[in-house]
Design a protein that fits this description.
Layout (H helix, E strand, L loop, with lengths): L4 H6 L6 H31 L12 E8 L5 E3 L18 E9 L2 H16 L7 E9 L2 H10 L3 E6 L18 E5 L4 E6 L5 H15 L3
Parallel strand pairs: 3-4, 4-5
Antiparallel strand pairs: 1-7, 2-5, 3-6, 6-7
């Protein structure tokens, strides 16, 4: 095989068009194997496609989904919440996010619900994390937080921003649990009108279909 002077000096051979095409096909295949099931799971869950029982979600679906970046939330160390999601994550997770402007009795019900659902997932529990954005909290809850909700991360608003909550979600008026997929899409929400059994059923179905996160 003949090489140019530049190729010889660099010790590299110029990739042929066929090699470039083969590399692109390999990259696409790797992405499809890794994240194709997640995309398929979302389609199946929304439409009931290939699901003999049909479309039977219990939570309130968001159509279209809302990027978690729009919520403008960050950890207490300043890490944007949105940075934890996306196709480049090594260990992608789902997220149950409790949002409430003022954490009164209904808010505490949802904190408890998220905790119990996470526990009930059993061996699948590590695939789902928990967090909370609470505008204000009673002093009694702050005292109990480390004991009752030690695995639920507290989030804050990014300085100088306001959250763009999805349509139909207004935490200042009514606390909600937002379900975020591993790609960072807020796709569903729950309130005190939902039971732990209903939420657990939805999440188990999504985890079973996706195998991602």
């Amino acid at each position: 095989m003949t090489t140019t002077t530049a190729d010889s000096m660099s010790g590299r051979e110029t990739a042929s068009p066929e090699q470039i095409r083969r590399g692109r096909r390999t990259a696409i295949l790797l992405f499809a194997v890794g994240f194709g099931p997640m995309v398929l799971a979302t389609i199946m869950f929304y439409t009931g496609w290939l699901n003999p029982a049909g479309h039977t979600n219990n939570g309130e679906l968001l159509q279209p989904v809302v990027p978690v970046k729009a919520l403008n939330l960050e950890t207490r160390t300043g890490e944007p919440l949105a940075d934890r999601f996306g196709a480049d994550q090594v260990d992608p997770q789902w997220l149950m996010l409790v949002a409430a402007g003022n954490c009164t009795e209904e808010c505490e019900q949802l904190l408890y619900l998220a905790r119990q659902v996470n526990i009930a997932l059993g061996k699948e529990a590590p695939r789902v994390s928990r967090a909370a954005w609470l505008g204000t909290t009673p002093a009694a809850l702050d005292v109990r937080w480390a004991q009752d909700y030690q695995r639920m991360e507290r989030l804050t608003l990014m300085p100088g921003t306001t959250p763009a909550w999805p349509d139909g979600v207004n935490p200042d008026a009514e606390p909600r649990i937002l379900l975020v997929d591993p790609f960072g899409n807020v796709m569903m929400h729950y309130g005190t009108e939902h039971t732990g059994k209903q939420m657990l059923k939805d999440i188990k179905q999504l985890l079973k279909l996706s195998q991602i996160g």
